[in-house]
Design a protein that fits this description.
By secondary structure, this protein is of the alpha/beta class. The protein is 25% helix and 24% strand. The chain is built from nine helices and 20 strands. The protein has helices at 104-107, 109-112, 123-132, 149-161, 176-182, 198-205, 210-221, 240-254, 279-291, and strands at residues 2-4, 14-15, 19-21, 27-29, 37-38, 49-52, 55-58, 63-64, 66-71, 85-90, 116-120, 137-140, 165-170, 188-192, 225-232, 260-264, 297-300, 309-310, 317-322, 325-329. The radius of gyration is 20 Å and the shape is globular. Bound molecules: iron/sulfur cluster (SF4). Residues 29, 31-32, 34-36, 44-46, 49, 95, 147 line the site of iron/sulfur cluster (SF4).
């Protein structure tokens, strides 16, 4: 376990990528859509990138706050090597301040505690651990992977050399420069579409919506397998008109084969007083998604059905899931065995 307060003594602290020097001591970070202008001695919004004497440093390289072997369904990715394992890593920090964050203890640690703590793990170690645990992929997850870009980038390149896939579970607020650099190594992403109103993003998250929509389209155009998740929160983003707008965007701009995960909210962080999402709201959102033409709409975080994959052509149950496990997978050659309809995804029958 190690801790540091932003000083540059730690052996893993290193110069960041993707920044411009504006004046001798002022820099602009180009890693995410905040494009923070950072004076000397200060940190960016994410609190893990620091300007020291006109050089931008990342403070979280090689510093994991969490390492776990998860089912890929937990990301959630339902159409990417179903039933496989994803070696999952995170560092502290986030470029968002979502008031409902379920992982706020680690995502907001640098902001709330002025602290970066964790375990040392080099990219080589991460890849070796992923291979040893039989993982099919490495997932950069739990906090926002954009803010540990340099670490993820080095790990992802090694992962590809070792035959592992790379997954981002992300808020989608990276810069296009970052995506241009990372996309050759990024195989799949789950993007959290937290709302479909700019004002909600500005008020509760501290960011904007449009860059996320643009980045999802970019990912799709570059052939990155994409799934979208919306945590439906009572009174925040559960208006049926807003959910319909989100579903329309996914269906029309990303394609009807893009899975949409509707997830149940539970009280957390600064929204501890809001009740969990009623099941009827989630079912209504699922209905809206299907009405807008989406082929795969899943409901997560609930104890009842809503996670199976059905053939969009003949309606046959093809993949049955329980919790994060796959009970059966009836696909043959990535298609429905009954009617031959291709089922979108990657490695749908590879495990
Ligand atoms: S990653 Fe984003 S939030 Fe962090 S310093 Fe760079 S632009 Fe700012």
């Amino acid at each position: 376990m190690r801790e540091h307060d932003g000083s540059l003594k730690n052996k893993y602290v290193r110069e960041a990528l993707l920044y411009d020097r504006l004046t001798q001591n002022r820099i602009r970070c180009n890693l995410c859509a905040h494009h923070c202008v950072i004076p000397d001695g200060k940190l960016g919004v994410c609190r893990v990138r620091k300007n020291t004497d006109g050089i931008l440093y990342t403070l979280v390289y090689g510093n994991t706050i969490s390492q776990n072997v998860d089912p890929v369904e937990k990301k959630p990715l339902y159409h990417f090597y179903p039933g496989s394992l994803a070696y999952s890593v995170a560092t502290p920090g986030c470029n968002f301040r979502c008031q409902w964050c379920q992982n706020w203890q680690i995502s907001q640690m640098p902001r709330e505690q002025n602290l970066i703590t964790g375990q040392e793990a080099s990219p080589e170690q991460i890849v070796a651990d992923a291979l040893e645990t039989g993982s099919r992929s490495i997932a950069y997850t739990y906090t926002e992977p954009t803010i540990f870009f340099e670490y993820a980038y080095d790990t992802a390149r090694l992962a590809h050399q070792a035959g592992l896939a790379n997954i981002f579970v992300t808020n989608g607020y990276m810069s296009q420069q970052m995506l241009e650099m990372f996309h050759p190594y990024l195989d799949a992403a789950n993007v959290d579409l937290k709302a479909f109103r700019e004002k909600t993003y500005h008020r509760y998250v501290g960011a904007g919506l449009q860059p996320i929509l643009d980045n999802m389209k970019f990912m799709k155009q570059r052939g990155i397998w994409l799934e979208v998740t919306t945590l439906v929160i009572p009174g925040i983003n559960d208006d049926p008109a807003e959910l319909r707008d989100a579903a329309q965007f996914v269906a029309q701009e990303l394609g009807p084969e893009t899975p949409w995960h509707i997830s149940r909210f539970f009280p957390a962080y600064k929204m501890a007083n809001i009740a969990p999402t009623p099941l009827v709201t989630l079912q209504q959102a699922q209905k809206i998604g299907r009405e807008e033409g989406l082929h795969y709409v899943y409901v997560g975080n609930i104890p009842v059905e809503g996670n199976d994959t059905f053939c969009p052509s003949c309606g046959r149950a093809l993949i049955r899931r329980h919790s994060f496990g796959v009970i059966f997978n009836r696909l043959e050659k990535d298609s429905c065995p009954a009617c031959g309809e291709p089922i979108a995804g990657i490695g749908m029958r590879s495990t």
